[in-house]
Amino acid sequence: MKIKIVTAVLFASLFVTNVLTAADSPARKQLQQRSMEAGVGVPQVALLQVKAGPGRETALKAVRQRFGQASGTVYLSGTSKTEAKRRSVVQRGKGWALEVAGDGSKVRYLNYAFLDSAANKHVAVAARPAQQELETKGRRFISEQLGDLVRLGAGEEIVPLYTEYNVAGGGPTAPGAKPDAEVVTAANVVFGRTVDGVHVIGRGSKIAVTFGTDGTVAGFDYDWPEYRHSGRTQKVVPMAEVNARARKLAPEDVERRDAKVERVECGYLDRGPGRDAQAPLQSACAIYTVSRSIVDEAAHAKHPESGHITVAKITVVPAGETVEPDAKWALAQKHLGKPYYGQAPPKDGPKRTQ
After folding, report:
1. Which end of the chain is more exposed for a tag (fewer CB within 10 A), N or C?
2. Is residue 262 in some structural domain?
3. How many separate domains does the chain show?
């Protein structure tokens, strides 16, 4: 699986945010250091299977029961309209929006009226709420408010990954004017999951809690399926073998000119809504690379920080000694010599059958 990095915007279909700045948690920094040195860090993992979700209508009912009469800034009271889409159900009330997607294991809610109100005062970047403070409040909200919706299995733990701050300003409002001061308008704390001490990487298995600048919870977003042990295990290869696979399976990414590995994260891969429902969760390493290519020599000569294009990519490489088939994971299928989703057709075109 290859992903071109684009700054993630939580609740993208519900509201538009400004530029985001992010800070990794100590737990994520430890994950990255261990992954760079030892890969997954265990000799084998138990293969996991994703349980089927409750269904969108059942999940919507459960969320409404939980927050239908709630007060504060997370509520679903008042008149609302419900719209059924192809892959989700969206319910909108006065100043808030709720979406339940997929099989009901993905839910997101936002009180945008509060975030846009005078009560949510913008603060200077230096005065933004502290990361540790938001992590603590996020854990409390998950435990007290989402506990019956976001369940943990045996050996599972919720771990903080990073905090994003929504930053506005920094640009001039008129020709020749000084740039407006940058201010923080909101923050998102993103949590992940470990299973028997092994992190789950990828888009899936995430919980995000959105805060106003005073630490008030204004929304949440989770993709949190339940897992079960398949009864099978998978031996894990060392990081040296993962790197060799990356060079073989995706040389255009990890060996391209000026490519620099910025970080590595290894663990179970959960691709989120695009996961192959038939494939087990298995071990993988996500290799984050960044490369810069100069497109304007003159501009770059005058200002080294300009005149170039920066390309960032994530290359997710299978880390199992024996790789399990996964129709939605290109590099796993490529390693196995099997066709994969999104594969280009042969140059001579598809063969016709009589």
Report:
1. C
2. no
3. 1
Q: Kindly report, residue by residue over 203-220, the tens digit of the pLDDT.
A: 999 999 999 999 999 999
Asked if residue 288 lies in contact with residue 314, where contact means CB atoms within 8 angstroms, the answer is yes
Residues of the chain with pLDDT under 50: 1-17, 300, 349-354
Model confidence over 176-187: pLDDT tens digits? 677 778 899 999
**pTM attached to this predicted model:** 0.86
Helix orientation angle between 26-38 and 239-249, rounded to the nearest 10 degrees? 80
Q: Is residue 252 part of a domain?
A: no
With helix as H, strand as E and coil as C, how does the chain read? CEEECCCCCCCCCCCCCCEEEEEECHHHHHHHHHHHHHCCCCCEEEEEEECCCCCHHHHHHHHHHHHCCCCCCCCCCCCEEEEECCCEEEEEECCEEEEEECCCCEEEEEEHHHHHCCCCCCEEHHHCCCHHHHHHHHHHHHHHHCCCCCCCCCCEEEEEEEEEEEEECCCECCCCCCECCCEEEEEEEEEEEEECCEEEECCCCEEEEEECCCCCEEEEEEECCCEEEEEEEEEECCHHHHHHHHHHHCHHHHCCCCCEEEEEEEEEECCHHHCCCCCCECEEEEEEEEEEEECCHHHHHHCCCCCEEEEEEEEEEECECCCCCCCCCHHHHHHHCCCCCCCCCCCCCCCCCC
Which residue range forms the structural domain that includes residue 106?
Answer: 53-229
